[in-house]
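Quick note —
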Amino acid sequence: MGFRALVVERDDEGKTLAAVRMAEESDLPAGEVLVRVDHSTVNYKDGLCIGPGGGLVRTYPHVPGIDFAGTVESSDDPRYKAGDKVVLTGWRVGETRWGGYAEKARVPADFLVPLPAGFSTRAAMAVGTAGLTAMLAIMALEDHGLKPGQGPVLVTGAAGGVGSVAVAVLAHLGHEVAAVTGRPDQADYLTGLGASRIVPREEFAEVTRKPLESELWAGCVDAVAGVMLGRVLKQMAYGASVAAIGLAGGAAIEGALITPFILRGVNLLGIDSVMQPYANRLRAWSRISRDLPMDRLEAMIVPAGLSDLPELGAAILKGQVRGRVVVDVRS
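Predicted structure written out below.
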């Protein structure tokens, strides 16, 4: 039976075009579980895959969408049965195999996680990879000693998907949150999520050769890297940690020196959500269901349909998407 999907095709000159088209179940890749998709979302990787691919897409035609939530239609794996609600994030779905920008998806059972109790598929995709990554970052900071009351926690790229969830969760847990953004018009949005202080991005724009700066931050969730991370590391309190989740400002840590690590015992923690083991995914989703206020989650949501995705894909690559886009693939 046919279903709608956002299909990306590439011509002989390497140009790509994304459009909503009909597909067949026989087009789907192999896997034990067939899912009727309700909702997906938009991440930076999705923007790459909707457009030129960024080296992520191996074969065309292709259906992007690295996240989805929906209902099991059929399963050859005993862990899932028809009618079960499930979530998928990561595993390179939407990159190397067809993803969630379609009304149906077929995946290995190991890629799925049961939808948390009390969560709708819409709420799950308001969280998505971005929210999962934010929670993994916060858990890592806590595992390395972060507790409320130790001082302000910095969140860079705060108006983006990961940053928005990180701000909301950290504030809910009782932390003082300093939100970094280059978009002054997002100040009210960020304070509404719980940020107690807005820090202009320009404060981190200059590379300095100072070995250390004043100790300002008890922890940090960093989505930017580049010059910003180089400055942030020098401003961390003794023994504090930075959870690095992205590279919007570049893959290099510009201006970084070894001094924060050997003179202040600063920790730089790398966070990956794509290949996270099942048990840690369950732990993170359990924390999300407990520690992410639903009213603040609702404030992050920007609704969209399949036909909106080409424009949204281009916008997220330019840093022009705020909060969490929730795509109803049925509309």
